[in-house]
Amino acid sequence: MKLSRFAQLLKPSETLAVSTKAKTLRAQGQDIIDFGLGEPDFNTPDNIIRAAEHAMAEGFTKYTPPPGLPELRRAVAEKFKRENNLDYTPDEIIISCGAKHVLYNLSRLLVEAGDEVIIPGPCWVTYPAQVEMAGGTPVIIPTTAEDDFKMTGEALRRYLTPKTKGIILNSPCNPTGTVYTPDELEDLARVLMDTELFVITDEIYEHLVYDGVKQISIATLDPELKARCIVVNGFSKTYAMTGWRLGYCAGPAELIEMYGRLQSQSTSNATSFAQVAGIEALNGPQDSVQMMVQEYERRRNFVVQRLNAMTGVSCNMPKGAFYVFPKIDTLFGRAAQGGQLQTSMDVTAYLLEAAGVAVVPGEAFCDDRYIRISYATSMEALEAGLDRMEHAIQQLT
Ligand code: PLP
């Protein structure tokens, strides 16, 4: 069968690949500790589950309007006002099957062949992959642990070309956990104000912030900039709802109208009773979110302290999300059973084989000097996995 050119552009998700390998080894009876997946280990809060159960029992199992239930679009508009100080009307909001789906639809609506899209790196694998799927060219602006993985306005300006069509921001960031301060966002906004770029701002980790930090949206900084911003968010991380597949974005009504057309000819609506659960998530009690955030913060402190005590590993203290992104390139050149470690993929393979610990190579996030560890797993698993990692690193010669 001759597949389309589009099919040939498709790349597997490297984060999912590691997790799949870890699951296969586990199925073969090996004791694997998985630090690979970006998925809360908590169950979805009970009030949200009950709302979906109730909706199903009431026969709420039919199609909804393709852009989403009007009640949910309204609840999202209220959430933007309440939590982000952003004014959107419900027709500037659309509901999709997860934030990943939102981002995919946006790439189809905003990017075409020849366009460059700026992405500060290290970045989530999916951004460059989706830009490429739309025929565009991702332009990664590198940042380092020393700059706390933050892109400056000055760096952004240097990378602008006549082909630059847009930028994708992600704060708090997957994989680094970096959260931009208001001043740093102002610095970027000043440069963006001199352009006509679209600004996708993925704020899915907005509530997972620590040390008293508050995430703010770049869309709040200026009305003219807001008109070019698309604020992406979802339920997966804040409400531990990864499997429900529910996400949304807010942007200019004209774009959202086209987005509705795309969705009506592709997936139609997100799952009806998941949308009802989404209303409960936003409008119901938020104490389970607070509990989860406190627990993530406790784990983050533990993991960073343990990693920095390992020879050859150094790790920043991230302010958000549930990942740490330790630098491991000083391990390159050291010898393991299978040969010399030369890449983040080699380090990952070594940790899986020698320690039974699954992590994700930095290469998957456009920087080979690091690995990503997710601490969205129990404290017991973190303790055991980090012990094993430390031991395996000590065995390197
Ligand atoms: N954005 C970022 C930065 C993510 O890390 C993820 C999931 O890993 C998503 C979006 C997608 O979330 P969803 O489950 O809503 O598709």
Secondary-structure map:
Blueprint: H1 5-9, H2 14-27, E1 33-34, H3 46-57, H4 70-84, E2 93-96, H5 99-110, E3 116-121, H6 126-133, E4 137-142, H7 153-159, E5 164-170, H8 182-192, E6 198-202, H9 223-226, E7 229-234, E8 247-250, H10 253-264, H11 272-283, H12 287-308, E9 323-324, E10 335-336, E11 339-340, H13 344-355, E12 357-358, E13 360-361, E14 371-374, H14 379-394
Parallel strand pairs: 1-12, 3-4, 3-5, 5-6, 6-7
Antiparallel strand pairs: 2-8, 7-8, 9-14, 10-11, 13-14
Helix pairs in contact: 3-11, 4-11, 5-6, 7-8, 12-14, 13-14
Commentary on this structure:
There is one protein chain. The chain is of the alpha/beta class and 397 residues long. The chain has 2 domains: 5-43 and 288-394, Aspartate Aminotransferase, domain 1 (Alpha-Beta Complex), CATH 3.90.1150; 51-283, Type I PLP-dependent aspartate aminotransferase-like (Major domain) (Aspartate Aminotransferase, domain 2, 3-Layer(aba) Sandwich). The chain is built from 14 helices and 14 strands. It has helices at 5-9, 14-27, 46-57, 70-84, 99-110, 126-133, 153-159, 182-192, 223-226, 253-264, 272-283, 287-308, 344-355, 379-394; strands spanning 33-34, 93-96, 116-121, 137-142, 164-170, 198-202, 229-234, 247-250, 323-324, 335-336, 339-340, 357-358, 360-361, 371-374. The strands form 4 sheets. It has a 7-stranded mixed β-sheet with strand order 2-8-7-6-5-3-4, sandwiched between helices. α7 runs parallel beside α8 and α12 (287-308) runs parallel beside α14. The longest helix is centred in the last third of the chain and has 22 residues, at 287-308. The chain is globular. The protein starts with a helix and ends with a helix. The mean pLDDT is 95. The structure holds pyridoxal-5'-phosphate.
